[in-house]
Amino acid sequence: MTATVPRIGFVSLGCPKASVDSEQIITQLRVEGYDIVPDFDGADMVIINTCGFIDSAVEESLGAIDEALQENGRVIVTGCLGARAELINARFPQLLAVTGPQAKEDVMRAVHRHLPAPHDPFLDLVPKQGVRLTPRHYAYLKISEGCNHRCSFCIIPSLRGDLVSRPIDEVMDEAQLLVDAGVREILVISQDTSAYGVDCKYQTRFWQGQPLRTRFLDLTRALGKLGVWIRLHYVYPYPHVDDVIPLMADGAILPYLDIPFQHASKKILKAMKRPGNRDRVLERISSWREVCPELVIRSTFIVGFPGETDADFDELLDFLEIAQLDRVGCFTYSAVDGAAANALFNHVPEAIKQERYHRFMLKQQAISAARLQQRIGQQVTVLIESRSKQGYSGRCYADAPEIDGLVHVCSETRLPLGEFCRVKITGADEYDLYATPSR
Ligand code: SF4
Questions:
Q1: Are 263 and 301 in contact (CB under 8 A)?
Q2: Which atom of ligand 1 is nearest to the CA of 234?
Q3: Please, are residues 88 and 95 in contact by the beta-carbon 8 Å criterion?
Q4: How many Å apart are CA 25 and CA 16, to the nearest integer?
Q5: How many angstroms separate the CA atoms of 223 and 228, rounded?
Q6: Rounded distance between C-alpha atoms, residue 343 and residue 19, angstroms
């Protein structure tokens, strides 16, 4: 039965970019007076924002659709998996609508068709910064959509199209609203953060009366003046990334770079259709560390890519040893429907992929653990996030939420959640640090 205020259940799956899409849809729903409810059976309709990146994400999305149909029956599907509408409609013909990623308008049209919005201006209680799915103290800031690269393992460009940068004044307005709302950390995301503005030829716009170019360096510099932590994600290793390192050394933005290198062997990088000069990358990492010694580098790699030989894999392990990256994620290659890499020869048997994955992880664990050990005795600022029996947990500049480690702070005095605290590092394991408040 439809209540006076129409209620919508919302499930958001996938990466931070998908979360931002969800936030925009939820914000619009709240603006129009819909209520967002946490359970399926109390809702008049359910929206599922799906992920279609790897097989396990597809399975999770299909499972969520199935559950929502069984428990509610009135379901709209959107997001990356929604781009494969034939597959979803064939399996779930009873869905109300299926739309692709970044399709807020299409989702809203489908909602209006099946659950008309109430007409009550007094229901407009949405905060100016929109509804966010993250805790109050941090937020993702999406600066562009799509990607001009064509990495052979990835179907994001075919799902989301070429790069489209948001105007810099619009991005800065959103960042300012977040800061005004109490956000302490902004995480800059996109498919390719360092390419920001390439599509609009670095157009000059005006923000608070000042000209600003729609460009990676200008954006980073402007964000760095907002007085909160700024963390850069999904940075492609272009030479102009060098320009932001001095901003990190000066403390304007966090000395943290998330750069997915994906591999180190020239042959495999070529097959992945990614730029690849191992020695140049190593030289650049070392020059960045000269400018900013506290720089923390996070990266992700794929092992078992088609054609990867023992020699290629050894080259990757070698790279890890020399690069001494701080935080590293690893995936075994898995074929994604529609990706060009599926047509490559010499796919690596699953057992070898798994064996390489374990060797990779062992190697990197030792490197990460040794690097964390070097932090013992240092004083750092921690953003306190939760309280446990043992004390408090938070993150320092080296830890992005959800993907990196934590700093566990043992404190007898009360530490406010969502606020900064200076601590002294007293211990470390493979992933986390242990600390006490600085006196
Ligand atoms: S850079 Fe490559 S992996 Fe990343 S979104 Fe673009 S095509 Fe996909």
A1: yes
A2: 4
A3: yes
A4: 14
A5: 8
A6: 31
- Those residues whose C-beta lies under 8 Å from the C-beta of residue 414, and which sit 6 or more positions away, are none
Q: What is the pLDDT of residues 266-289, one digit of tens each?
A: 999 999 999 878 899 999 999 999
Taking CA atoms, 245 is separated from 233, 257, 343, in Å, by: 14, 9, 39
Secondary structure (H, E, C), the chain = CCCCCCEEEEEECCCHHHHHHHHHHHHHHHHCCCEEECCCCCCCEEEEEECCCCHHHHHHHHHHHHHHHHHCCCEEEEEHHHHCHHHHHHHCCCCCEECCCCCHHHHHHHHHHHCCCCCCHHHCCCCCCCCCCCCCCEEEEECEECCCCCCCCCCHHHHHCCCEECCHHHHHHHHHHHHHCCCCEEEEECCCHHHCCCCCCCCEEEECCEEEECCHHHHHHHHCCCCCEEEECCCCCCHHHHHHHHHHHCCCCCCEEECCCECCCHHHHHHHCCCCCHHHHHHHHHHHHHHCCCCEEEEEEEECCCCCCHHHHHHHHHHHHHHCCCEEEEEECCCCCCCHHHHCCCCCCHHHHHHHHHHHHHHHHHHHHHHHHCCCCCEEEEEEEEEECCEEEEECCCCCCCCCCCEEECCCCCCCCCCEEEEEEEEECCCCEEEEECC
- Among protein residues, the one with the nearest Cα to ligand 1's atom 2 is 151
What is the value of pTM for the model shown? 0.77
What tens digit of pLDDT does each residue of 129-173 get?
666 777 889 999 999 999 999 999 998 888 888 999 999 998 999
Residue nearest to atom 8 of ligand 1 (CA): 154
> Which tens digits make up the pLDDT trace of 35-78?
898 888 889 999 999 887 777 788 888 999 999 999 999 999 99
Cβ 191 under 6 angstroms from ligand 1: yes
Return the ligand 1 atom nearest residue 157 CA: 7
- Strand duo 391-395 + 379-388: pairing: antiparallel
Q: Which atom of ligand 1 is nearest to the CA of 191?
A: 5
Question: Using a 6 Å cutoff on CB, does residue 192 contact ligand 1?
Answer: yes
